[in-house]
Amino acid sequence: MEFSTEVPGLFHTLGETRLDVADWGRMLLYSNFPSRCVLERLTFCKATNGKQHEFIVLYFRHWNASVPTTARLVVDRAPSPSPKGNGSFMPMMHSTSSSALRTSALDSVTITPNTVHWETYLRTMYGPYKELCTLTFSATTSKSACPSASQISVLLFVISRHAPNYHLCKFQCYWFASTIWETIKQLFPGYTETAWNRGRSRCHGVKVDKADSVEVVCRKYTDEWTRFENEAEYTRAQQVSHLWIRAKILTL
Question: 126: part of which helix (H) or strand (E)?
Answer without folding.
Answer: helix 118-126
